[in-house]
Design brief:
The chain has two domains: 47 residues, Orthogonal Bundle (Arc Repressor Mutant, subunit A); 132 residues, Tetracycline Repressor, domain 2 (Orthogonal Bundle). It is mainly alpha-helical. The relative contact order is 0.09. It contains ten helices and no strands.
């Protein structure tokens, strides 16, 4: 046998994919929750860009192209999440309603429940200038109805916190919890209007004064 000749083999080595293809394949693999997270991030970026531009220029001036450019996405991506510009405006305004309820929906089980809730209520702000938010309400019956429901829920939560504090005798029993809740929710919008008018307001100090009024 001639040992100088290479020995043939029936083994067929598997064909290796080009390095670039292997890298590309790795880039395309995603964890199960990643697509949903990516969708949420895209929508959130569009909402944030719109809110920023509405604060800077008003709700009418920024074009869809400007909003998409600020967010870093194309108009094609925009239409995946929103039917049109009006729907985007409603979604931006709806975020304020969500945040308002989030700030007051959980109050602690302490005698100071109402006072603690009050600070969150007074500090909650619309994510666009208040007068622009009210303009959007005027144009959209759907948004106006939704906002009325948000105010009702906020008042209900505040009323329940008032009654909770009354049970601990940290709020006078003769205080009308229903009427007080409506006044405090209205105060949220009033303080925002003052800030927009350039009048300095101190939510912490306002909360202290109000607390002193309803205590025994």
């Amino acid at each position: 046998m001639d040992m100088s000749k290479p020995v043939s083999s029936d083994r067929i080595e598997p064909e290796q994919p080009p390095m670039s293809a292997a890298k590309s394949s790795r880039r395309q693999r995603r964890s199960p929750g990643e697509p949903e997270r990516s969708k949420e991030a895209t929508r959130a970026a569009l909402l944030q860009a719109a809110a920023e531009l509405f604060r800077e220029q008003g709700i009418d001036l920024p074009s869809l192209d400007t909003i998409c450019d600020r967010a870093g996405y194309t108009r094609g991506a925009f239409y995946v999440y929103f039917k049109d510009r009006d729907e985007l405006v409603r979604a931006v305004c709806a975020e304020y309603q969500t945040n308002l309820l989030k700030q007051i929906s959980v109050y602690d089980d302490s005698p100071e429940a109402l006072s603690n809730l009050l600070r969150g209520l007074l500090e909650a702000e619309t994510n666009v200038p208040l007068h622009q938010f009210l303009l959007a309400l005027e144009r959209s019956p759907e948004l106006a109805t939704s906002f009325k429901e948000t105010l009702r829920e906020a008042a209900d939560i505040t009323r329940d916190a008032t009654r909770f504090s009354q049970a601990f005798s940290t709020v006078r029993g003769d205080v009308d919890a229903e009427a007080l809740s409506q006044v405090l929710v209205a105060l949220n919008l009033g303080m925002q209007a003052m800030r927009e008018a350039g009048t300095p307001v101190d939510p912490e100090r306002a909360a202290q004064v109000l607390t002193a009024l309803w205590q025994r």
